[in-house]
Task: inverse folding
């Protein structure tokens, strides 16, 4: 089944906007042409762009692509960059903590102050658990729900 962009008439200004974008993003286009066979991007389908935009760096609420074009970042890492890119306090903390190591699978001294802060802020949180992934957290939540309710079956929507 063809996607919506192939069946509907384009917006009257689409051709001009597409031409302007193509002229401003030649490096992004070249990167796409060179890697399209191995790197899939849903960007084309999601935003109806002629090719994906490749970001070189971000600062504050802005990101800059490999061609030097600046954009307001409305995604912000899908929530991970809630304070913006390279926020000074976050940047300082990342540098300080990364000097002690990269990734620990067990507790670190940095977890306790965060756990206390979250415990105080979330009235219903008796205990906290830090997980490495959302899948791991979901697994723990499912086990806790089964233990609490005594039910063996779980519905996922």
Result:
């Amino acid at each position: 089944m063809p996607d919506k962009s192939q069946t509907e008439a384009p917006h009257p200004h689409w051709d001009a906007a597409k031409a302007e974008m193509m002229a401003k993003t030649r490096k992004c286009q070249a990167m796409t042409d060179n890697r399209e066979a191995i790197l899939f991007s849903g960007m084309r389908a999601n935003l109806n762009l002629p090719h994906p935009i490749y970001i070189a760096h971000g600062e504050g609420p802005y990101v800059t692509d490999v061609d030097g074009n600046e954009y307001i970042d409305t995604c912000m890492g899908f929530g991970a960059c809630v304070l913006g890119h390279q926020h000074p306090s976050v940047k300082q903390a990342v540098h300080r903590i990364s000097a002690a190591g990269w990734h620990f699978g067990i507790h670190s001294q940095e977890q306790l102050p965060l756990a206390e802060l979250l415990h105080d802020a979330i009235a219903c949180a008796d205990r906290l658990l830090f997980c490495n992934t959302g899948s791991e957290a979901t697994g723990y939540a499912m086990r806790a729900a089964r233990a609490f309710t005594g039910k063996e079956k779980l519905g996922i929507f």
Remarks:
- The two ends are 26 Å apart (CA to CA).
- The chain has two domains: 4-98, 111-149.
